């Protein structure tokens, strides 16, 4: 059973629809990778799960089910009680989630004070030290009185993770948590999240541009384009046999270190601007497989099998099916 189920989510401004009928789900102990170009609606969709769409943006439709309860029916006070305690969110820039005027210790201990009602200062500090040790901050006892600017980018992100783990949330949304970090620190951060997930059964939604990280850390993947999910399913299946031309293009643009002679795929054109989307498939102007019907109506998501779906009028042929047909014809 899925811990989080988003069904037909619609998020819009007065003049443009930013997220248009998005549906995805993630279960306890699993990681869903949400990928796509900048502006595709990934972050807006995740913020909407928490009931925190950006200023000037509103949730106009759909259901957001957390453990069976529709979060859209919750009052602001009820949603506030869920944030941090049941659902945590790690932002891509830890400096936007850490108060530069407060010490690290103050910011972490406040989680215990306001979310769990721990009145003892010594107990709050002891738990904060244990959390910092858990995320591998060296000499955590001496760092409680440090300020965010006294930490490196990777250490600040570890502190942000510690704050999100303080109340043992069952769902963790990580919105490009490693964007500004070098590759070594990036892997350390994601290894840490995977360890926490293994220990606590945490469900994770990982928003990222890095398909290498999706392959390494995610169980499932959902590919977004221009406000819609165009393909989703288990990572191994989607990466091995992409059916949507956009997914195939993204994977073809990933450098292969073992094959330096491989020529990278170039997806021509640019994604449409919000508010300027015409009728039909939104990828059609850039798609090598586009036909006349692609311009007349947006394709519904078709089920490829029990775990995969693709929104395309003319999906890429399944290599396995093509191989089987060729073998039959040859015999």
Sheet with most strands: 8 strands, mixed
Mean pLDDT: 89
Rg, alpha carbons: 22 Å
CATH-scheme architecture of one domain: 3-Layer(aba) Sandwich
Strand line-up across the major sheet:
6-7-8-3-9-10-12-11
CATH fold annotation of one domain: Rossmann fold
Oligomer: single chain
* Main CATH class of one domain: Alpha Beta
Strand share of the residues?
Answer: 15-25%
Counting helices, strands and paired strands, the structural category is alpha/beta
Give the CATH H-level superfamily of one domain. Answer: P-loop containing nucleotide triphosphate hydrolases
Count of runs of 4 or more consecutive helical residues: 12
* Proportion in helices: 25-40%
- The coarse silhouette is globular
- Calculate the terminal CA-CA distance, rounded to whole Å: 44 Å
Pattern of helices and strands: EEEHEEHEHHHHHEHEHEEHHEEH
- In the predicted model, the low-confidence regions spanning at least 5 consecutive residues are 321-331
Count the beta strands.
12
């Amino acid at each position: 059973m899925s811990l989080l189920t988003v069904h037909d989510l619609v998020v819009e401004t007065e003049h443009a629809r930013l997220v248009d009928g998005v549906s995805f789900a993630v279960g306890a102990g699993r990681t869903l990778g949400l990928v796509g170009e900048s502006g595709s609606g990934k972050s807006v969709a995740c913020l909407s799960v928490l009931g925190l769409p950006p200023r000037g943006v509103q949730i106009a439709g759909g259901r957001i089910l957390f453990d069976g309860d529709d979060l859209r029916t919750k009052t602001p006070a009820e949603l506030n009680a869920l944030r941090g305690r049941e659902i945590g969110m790690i932002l891509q820039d830890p400096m936007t989630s850490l108060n530069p005027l407060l010490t690290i210790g103050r910011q972490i201990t406040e989680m215990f004070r306001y979310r769990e009602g721990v009145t003892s200062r010594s107990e709050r500090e002891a738990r904060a030290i244990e959390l910092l040790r858990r995320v591998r901050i060296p000499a955590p006892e001496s760092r409680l009185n440090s300020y965010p600017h006294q930490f490196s980018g990777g250490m600040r992100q570890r502190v942000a993770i510690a704050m999100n783990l303080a109340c043992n949330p069952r769902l963790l949304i990580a919105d490009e948590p490693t964007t500004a970090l070098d590759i070594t620190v990036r892997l350390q951060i994601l290894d840490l999240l995977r360890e926490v997930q293994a220990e606590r059964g945490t469900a994770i939604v990982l928003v990222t541009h890095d398909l290498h990280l999706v392959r390494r850390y995610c169980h499932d993947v959902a590919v977004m384009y221009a406000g819609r999910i165009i393909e989703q399913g288990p990572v191994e299946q989607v990466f091995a046999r992409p059916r949507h031309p956009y997914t195939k293009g993204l994977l073809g643009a990933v450098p292969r270190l073992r094959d330096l002679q491989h020529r990278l795929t170039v997806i021509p054109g640019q994604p449409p601007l919000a508010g300027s989307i015409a009728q039909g498939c939104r990828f059609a102007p850039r798609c090598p497989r586009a036909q006349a019907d692609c311009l007349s109506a947006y394709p519904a998501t078709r089920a490829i099998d029990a775990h995969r779906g693709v929104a395309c009028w003319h999906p890429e042929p399944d290599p396995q099916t093509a191989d089987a047909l060729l073998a039959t014809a040859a015999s």
